[in-house]
Amino acid sequence: MRQLSLSAEVMERLGVVWGKSAGKADGAMHLLLGHLLDTAAVAELMWDRFLAPRTKRLLEVVSGGRGRMLFVWLCAVHDVGKATPAFQEFDAAGAARVRASGLSWRSAALKSKRWRHDKAGGRLLMDVLGREWRPEHVGWVWPLIAGHHGAFPSAGVLGDRAVPQEHQGRGAQWGEVQRALVEVVTRCVGFGGVAAVCPRVVPSRAEQLELSGLIVMADWIASDSRYFPGIDRIDQVGLGVSRDRACAAWEVLRLRGGWGVLPVPGGDLVEVRFGEKGRASQDQLVAFAREVPVPALHIVEGPMGEGKTKAALVAAEVLAARFGCDGVFVGMPTQATSDPMYGQVRRWLKEFGGGLESQVALLHGKRMFNPEWREASAPDVAGGCCSGGSSFDGIDEDDELYGIASGQAERHGPIEWFLGRKRGLLCSFAVGTVDQLLFAATRTRHVMLRFAGLAGKVVIIDEVHAADVYMQQFLVEALRWLGQAGVPVVLLSATLAPAQRRALVGAYVSGQGRTGGPVVVEVPEPGGYPSITGAYVQDGRAEVVCRSTASWRESYPVALEWLPDASDGGEAVAERTAREVAGGGVALVVLNTVDRAQGVFRALDARFPGEVHLLHGRLCAAHRADRTAVCLERLGPAAGVARPGRMIVVATQLAEQSFDIDVDVLLTDLAPIDLLLQRVGRLHRHEGTVRPATLARPRVVVTGVAPGEGVPVLHGGSEAVYGRFRLLRTAAVIERTLAEGGTWSIPSQVPGLVGEVYGERAVCPSSWGEAEEKARVKWEASERDRAAKAEAFLLAARGEWSRPTLSGLHYGQAAGVGDEKDLEAVVRDGKRSVEVVIVRRRGSGYTALDGAGLGVHGEASEHVLDEVLGGTTRLPAKLTKAAESELHPLDGWRGHPWLEHSLALVLEEDGTARLGEWAVSYEPQLGLVVRAGSSG
Fold first, then answer.
1. Rounded distance, CA 473 to CA 798, Å?
2. Which ranges of 254-325 would DSSP assign to H, the alpha helix?
3. For the chain, how big is the Rg over CA atoms in Å?
4. Cis link prior to 203 (omega < 30° from 0)?
5. What is the per-residue DSSP string for 656-694?
6. Measured CA distances, 300 to 181, 719, 773 (Å)
7. Pairing between strand 845-848 and 297-301?
8. Residue-wise pLDDT tens digits, 54-94
9. Taking CA 492 as the corner, what is the angle to CA 486 and CA 493, rounded to the nearest 5 degrees?
10. What is the pLDDT of residues 523-548, one digit of tens each?
11. What predicted TM-score, i.e. pTM, was given to this entire model?
């Protein structure tokens, strides 16, 4: 710094302007310059050891070949807004030193308005850079600084009239110190001056969002006082010192990236990675990934069991190698489907070597129940990885103004730093619910961290057809941003409705083409099944490519028939199921409501004790996991001799997705055609299975419907779940099929069937016309309302997609969204429900649901923790209000990392609990049972 020709006065003032108070910096005040250089040193390591190759390429283009220096500089200047009276006032001891150096302000004036240091930094850079940079570059850089605490303000907030001068710093002395701070940092990181930093190219808005998230990451690491304790003497501050501190922190935290630079692989990748010869549809996807000229959207449609997931993973390897991605995110529709995918991704990554399989994050709220996760994330004592604590709970004196404070950090993790709140997607390899992707498309605080985690990866989303109209708004928004960032995306589905396919393609290419909003793209129908629809923009022109090939398995006829029964108890369903398996065989019965499933189970269990298995969403976590495992063991692809002579699985919609079992006959409530076909996918699924002669032909019995006066009567619960319109159209297609011979050819007819139900052409008989029209009007109104409801939370507000910078992105942000549960409510429309941990009262104490003893106040020792957590159960939505007002954690759970926020549902010694007007019990076979309580 002596070479910078700074006056003694300025040097003295830089030596007292503080960035972290003693309370935040391990007992000694940390100079602001020291913190900025710490952050620069962390950024250097991020460039060398973490950033995806594509991100480095981006920064090289933006900077004109000085990408590393520009990235380090952007991270380093993030906190320059602390060199203002508004921030320096926060700590009395620090403020006294600053005033003693000759910098002054009126404390009383500061109380008139809050002026946060992130905004102050944005304004400061507007002034400093505005003197020497081109306006378009000032315009995209200042929001990165002004938004580094989670929300991007608008330029108007930082305008001359809006900025409180007393807070920002009056007089020449403040301006001199602020400019000197920027200049010192600029020269320390290698530039000859502020003018030399000026970028050459304006990155896209999505690329700016990614850079913003990486700046936040660097700041959060450099703010950990365990590794960056305070330095209050300027002669001890320097980039060399900060580099030593950053290297030590990086090693202890075990931070790392993913693949780095991958060679483009050749050969049959399915065989190389999974030990089985690639199928035609898998080879087709890999071939497209090898030849597509730019990052693209890949929509893969194929029948259940086709091997789409394995194809997506090997295609991701090719795409990562070609386009510089460092890892993969795999999004699944539910927590239950995420768990097996986590294991599959770990096994796939093990083939690469380097311990990558140990670095896969499982991102959902119940991951502690996954044995593989718990084993993989055991504490690494030798590595000294963070063991609890909350070093990131409040990284600045004015954190309460930002909403940064988080709950207790997780105790375990492959790389524990990435497992804190909002950071999970930064882990190079991650598997989780699709919610994680959707969160990155919401106008919420720190969305930039989530997006930065996605931007360096290949993104794979499975079962994409499962997104309803509300969720699809967030999916479409995410695709716009990912397309603009040049992120390769692979979407998997059994089949998509044509309108949904067009919406997904339109979103991605509108983002990639920077068109400023949704575009209409001609998306041809695939000519066969399985198929790939590839979409990208090259030289300003949208390209859509459709390819198809034959399935690995020949189509086979599936016979259909109706079973009239719209009753709540499902007596006719139970009777028919009993007849179907009277001589042996495996039946799957899928019902649309838990109450109906429980009723059918009761009837069948009385006939076939021990041979009937019930699966639904109101089972406790332990029972659901155990029963799912039993079904997969006995009916999965490796069942062999374990397959029983007779078995009945009664399930709700859990059986639709990623449930790889083979059954001889299917009985199912009517559902929209795409979901009905998902259920059909469990029928005669595996080759070589020995079946009873009476069940040798695949057959589907559709129920949940009864004859009516001209129009069928639908089960009320089914209507409540799916609406009347799609159910009527699906019923009409089944009626026509029965009139024409009663069989579907599966899988070849799947796209056509879905296209009929979701298309515009009339399919219902004329006698249903009035009922269909009423249902259509109601459905369209509902779809519009739900889409509009989602719009309030989308990352880019209507009409703002074409803006060139992040300025004002968080205007009107989603209020009151503080944690993952709040976000789940944002991206999933529907009646809110809560999870509880069920325990039993025994004498003066408690037991877990399974009987394991707890302390007098519910204390749970480590050896019974699994049993306690195994009692986690989701309540039906009608109990939510009562549960939130009446239930609390047990006293003995205070301070427990996994239980302190869990609501305890205490079953009294008679086995019941009262919640509002309801009596709740838990029966080992039936699961949660809810009945109307007595008036007493």
1. 12
2. 269-274, 280-291, 308-323
3. 30
4. no
5. GSS----BSEEEEE---HHHHHHHHTTBT-STT----GG
6. 52, 30, 33
7. unpaired
8. 999 999 999 999 999 999 999 999 999 999 999 999 999 99
9. 140
10. 998 989 999 999 999 998 999 999 99
11. 0.91
